[in-house]
Structures are given as C-alpha cells and as structure tokens.
Predict the structure.
Amino acid sequence: MKKWTVLILAAALLAYGCVGCGTQEAENAGAPANVSEGEAQMETQQPEHVAEEQGDNYDDLEEKGGSGEVTAFAEEIQVAMAGQDMEALADLCSYPVGVNGEVVEDREAFMELGADAVFTDERCAVIAAVDVSSLEETMAGVVMGEATPNIIFKSVDGTLGITGIN
C-alpha cells in the first residue's frame, strides 16, 4: 500500500510540473523563436499611442502627401533635429505627443524634457539620413526612420504634427 501512495504522489507531482511548463510555453507562443522572452515583453509593454486622444485622419494625410506637404513637413523636422532646436521641434508637435515611451501633454512639458532627452546622437543621425522624397503614408502616420529611434507624424485635426518621438 505504501508503494502505491508514493507512486501516485510522484505521478501527481509530474503531472503538476507538466501543467506549469505548458502554461509557460503558451505565454511565449506568440513571440518569434529568435526573440528572447525579455524582448517580447518589451514589445508588448510599450505605452499605448496617444492617437486615440487626437483627431487622426488618414485620408487627409494621403492628400497632404500628394500635395507635397508631407515632404515639406519632414524637411522641417530634419532642420529642427540638425539644429537641435527644441523650440522649432516643439512647434511641430501635436500634443499630447509620445516621447521616449512617455506621454507629454503640452508644449511646456515638452520643453522641460530638455535637449539631451530629444536630440540623441543616434536619433539625429537617423532623421538626417531619411530620404524625405520616399516617405510613405500609413494608417499609423509617416515614420521617419526604419526602426527605433524614429519620429512619427500624421494629420491631426487637418494639420500635420509629430505624434511620436521614439
């Protein structure tokens, strides 16, 4: 009888251990095989975009792209970044704006971030290298930069504005 109790207890522990492993695999099942668990968590923990609070209009963005406004606006961003001009960049933002994963509610809060937080060497180099004549409008807006760092802008209430600085 004692052998059967030990055997049943061992089987129960084995089954419990397998259930725990199955749960872990299910949690990581959505992540690509070449992405570590930490990287997958970072992707899902990004703050939600502030677009819901703004009057985004994709059709208006397409029109502005066709008229050359998108290219001109992207060039203004490049000039502000190259000159590390916080005032000029603040004027190009549509508030609230996402900056480095945080929501910045207004121009005053943006200016308080300081140039060091916005004008990193890497971000400045990426934005300077963007070919503004080949930018494409998407539902997310226009993304200047292939990955992070980048700057995203779109039409908000009929006016182009930066909505993300990543």
Remarks:
- The first strand starts at residue 93 and ends at 99.
- Residues 1-7, 9-55 have pLDDT under 50 and may be disordered.
